[in-house]
Amino acid sequence: MSEETPGFEEKPDVPSGDAAEAAESSEDAAAPAGDANSTPASDAGLTAQLDQARAALTERTGDLQRLQAEYQNYRRRVERDRVTVKEIAVASLLSDLLPVLDDIGRARDHGELVGGFKSVAESLETVVAKMGLQQFGKEGEPFDPTIHEALMHSYAPDVTETTCVAILQPGYRIGERTIRPARVAVAEPQPGSAGKAEESDDSEKDSE
């Protein structure tokens, strides 16, 4: 039976100083090799993710720009339609009032626009003017078939072109839209008057 020596304990084997330094150096040498092998792969992955994020951002930006353009076009269409509907409604209302305005004009021409009727008529004319209604058609202006309707025709020696010599019924417009042409009597130069005018000019030149 063996006896243990009192006061002494067995210690694990500890590598010598040279062996420990060799082990540390081998670990240090192995670590960079592992890092060098993993770095390119991780960089490539990050680059791919970044490219995907940029592509997604570009696509979303394009979608947002198209959506904004469509919305702006929609707003313009709605505003244009709203203005058009308003103009049509106003033109329809004023067209129904034109016979009343004609009666007021005839009463004024005959001196019958007096008293309370005069006040009501002037108020109505003020209201329709604020709504954009404009009267046109004057004696002596050139005849324009786009805004005039000729109801009577004659010849006159004192005109050099087709001229409105009488306004039978005034025309009305709203802005650039004609809601009723002016109904007029027109006069044209007398046949042969142009030749006489040229002869008179030639005679004047000869006398000089």
TrEMBL record:
<dbReference type="GO" id="GO:0005737">
    <property type="term" value="C:cytoplasm"/>
</dbReference>
<keyword id="KW-0963">Cytoplasm</keyword>
<dbReference type="GO" id="GO:0000774">
    <property type="term" value="F:adenyl-nucleotide exchange factor activity"/>
</dbReference>
<comment type="function">
    <text>Participates actively in the response to hyperosmotic and heat shock by preventing the aggregation of stress-denatured proteins, in association with DnaK and GrpE. It is the nucleotide exchange factor for DnaK and may function as a thermosensor. Unfolded proteins bind initially to DnaJ; upon interaction with the DnaJ-bound protein, DnaK hydrolyzes its bound ATP, resulting in the formation of a stable complex. GrpE releases ADP from DnaK; ATP binding to DnaK triggers the release of the substrate protein, thus completing the reaction cycle.</text>
</comment>
<comment type="similarity">
    <text>Belongs to the GrpE family.</text>
</comment>
<comment type="subunit">
    <text>Homodimer.</text>
</comment>
<keyword id="KW-0175">Coiled coil</keyword>
<feature type="compositionally biased region" description="Low complexity">
    <location>
        <begin position="15"/>
        <end position="36"/>
    </location>
</feature>
<feature type="coiled-coil region">
    <location>
        <begin position="50"/>
        <end position="84"/>
    </location>
</feature>
<dbReference type="InterPro" id="IPR013805">
    <property type="entry name" value="GrpE_CC"/>
</dbReference>
<dbReference type="Pfam" id="PF01025">
    <property type="entry name" value="GrpE"/>
</dbReference>
<feature type="compositionally biased region" description="Acidic residues">
    <location>
        <begin position="199"/>
        <end position="208"/>
    </location>
</feature>
<dbReference type="GO" id="GO:0006457">
    <property type="term" value="P:protein folding"/>
</dbReference>
<keyword id="KW-0143">Chaperone</keyword>
<protein>
    <recommendedName>
        <fullName>Protein GrpE</fullName>
    </recommendedName>
</protein>
<dbReference type="GO" id="GO:0051087">
    <property type="term" value="F:protein-folding chaperone binding"/>
</dbReference>
<feature type="region of interest" description="Disordered">
    <location>
        <begin position="1"/>
        <end position="47"/>
    </location>
</feature>
<dbReference type="InterPro" id="IPR000740">
    <property type="entry name" value="GrpE"/>
</dbReference>
<keyword id="KW-0346">Stress response</keyword>
<feature type="region of interest" description="Disordered">
    <location>
        <begin position="184"/>
        <end position="208"/>
    </location>
</feature>
<dbReference type="GO" id="GO:0051082">
    <property type="term" value="F:unfolded protein binding"/>
</dbReference>
<dbReference type="GO" id="GO:0042803">
    <property type="term" value="F:protein homodimerization activity"/>
</dbReference>
<dbReference type="InterPro" id="IPR009012">
    <property type="entry name" value="GrpE_head"/>
</dbReference>
